[in-house]
Write a structure and sequence with these properties.
- The chain is an alpha/beta fold and 386 residues long.
- Helices cover 47% and strands 14% of the residues.
- The strands form 2 sheets. Strands 3, 4, 5, 6, 7, 8, 9, 10 and 11 form a 9-stranded mixed sheet that branches. Strands 1-2 form a two-stranded antiparallel sheet.
- β1 and β2 form a beta hairpin.
- α9 crosses α10.
- The longest helix is centred in the last third of the chain and has 18 residues.
- It is elongated and about 75 Å long.
């Protein structure tokens, strides 16, 4: 599998040892259970590194975290004893550079050895030199693509072999985020979901899972009055900060459980349920999520999605529009939710789904990561009776 960056992107010295040392420390903190995005941001803020080296650290941390299973296989072929976490982190870091970034062995090995524990430098040197010259015979696609078995199996079942593999391959690459014209950086698929809501001036719109506020701030820009809520106080504070920073004024923000929304029933023109989900369509942006998610999470989150939709339906005025979106591609959280809505809320009529690059998916639409180099998303638009 080709690496996301070429050797030439980092110049002849491939950035300094200090960058690799920061990356190594961040990988250890992730291994201890800290969130990749948060710990990387914290480390970079205090690193004193140049912008070039900061970019290199980001690539090393996210890339090594995504490809952890593959990196472990690359090194474990040549290791005959248990490894302590600092040594394993150094070996993963080196394997990622050698195999996925095509870093020359003379640079990648020696610089990585420098950040390994002193007691293990001989081992790290010997193993990485073998990794550099011995091509892998992958034991299976899940190892090669570096995902837990259950994620590969689930997506093959739900999407078919070709699309599942293409989506997983795409989510091993860095993902571009697109600044909106107000400066907020957001994935283009999320911006398309906002477009699918179709809020217009003078309407009342509820966003009942609003954190971190990106969609909420965008929905209010067209002149609608937005009521944004989220169950988590800290995340709601982030949403409030987002809309305040962007100068969006027609927004009411509240801490509230979307299953029992605090707003007056039958009083909203549009309701967005951008629901908590398994996130299996955004594994490129959430580098460690593939290792945190468990098979039972899909069913648990689908139950929560149904509860949130039950609450959202009560808010719709006659003729109002309900939009359900998730950043996942599992059948249970997309087609399964569509089937449930059609049986429990048959009064809701389907509205036209977005067109290409979205694919028709039940009564809604599905966007796979490889369709347009975006997040994987699903959206469903329904209308209450007049």
């Amino acid at each position: 599998m080709p690496g996301p960056l070429a050797t030439s992107d980092w110049g002849p010295d491939l950035a300094g040892t200090d960058a690799r040392r920061v990356a190594h420390q961040v990988l250890l903190r992730i291994e201890d259970g800290e969130r990749a995005n948060a710990v990387l941001a914290d480390a970079l803020d205090t690193s004193g590194l140049t912008e070039r080296d900061r970019a290199f650290v980001t690539e090393l941390v996210y890339g090594t975290t995504r490809m952890r299973r593959a990196c472990d296989f690359l090194v474990e072929r040549f290791v005959m004893r248990p490894l302590d976490p600092p040594t394993r982190a150094a070996l993963r870091l080196g394997a990622y550079q050698l195999h996925f970034l095509a870093t020359p062995a003379h640079a990648g090995v020696s610089a990585t050895v420098e950040v390994a524990p002193r007691r293990a430098r001989g081992l790290v040197n010997a193993v990485l030199r073998r990794v550099a010259v011995v091509p892998p015979a992958w034991p299976g696609d899940a190892t090669r693509l570096s995902y837990p078995d259950w994620i590969l199996e689930r997506l093959v079942t739900d999407l078919g072999h070709r699309d599942a593999h293409a989506a997983l391959q795409q989510m091993n690459l860095p993902h571009p985020l697109t600044p909106r014209d107000d400066g907020y950086v957001q994935g283009v698929a999320s911006q398309w979901v906002v477009g699918a809501v179709g809020a217009t001036a003078g309407e009342r719109v509820a966003d009942i899972c609003a954190a971190p506020g990106g969609k909420a701030s965008s929905l209010a820009r067209g002149g609608a009055t937005l009521y944004a809520s989220d169950v988590d106080p800290a995340r709601t504070a982030v949403a409030a900060g987002t809309v305040r920073r962007l100068g969006t004024t027609a927004v009411v923000v509240a801490v509230a459980d979307g299953r029992s929304p605090p707003w007056r029933p039958a009083s909203f023109d549009r309701v967005l349920v951008d629901a908590p989900c398994s996130g299996l369509g955004v594994l490129h942006r959430r580098a460690d999520a593939r290792w945190r998610r468990q098979p039972g999470d899909v069913a648990r989150l689908a139950q929560l999605q149904r509860q949130l939709l039950d609450g959202a339906v009560t808010l719709l005025r006659p003729g109002g529009t309900l939009v359900y979106s998730v950043c996942t591609v599992t059948a249970e959280e997309t087609l399964g939710i569509d089937d449930w809505l059609s049986s429990v809320h048959p009064e809701l009529a389907p509205l036209a789904p977005p067109g290409p690059p979205w694919r028709r998916h039940g009564r809604g639409a599905l966007l796979l990561p490889h369709d347009a180099d975006t997040d994987g998303m699903a959206v469903l638009r329904l209308q209450a009776p007049p």
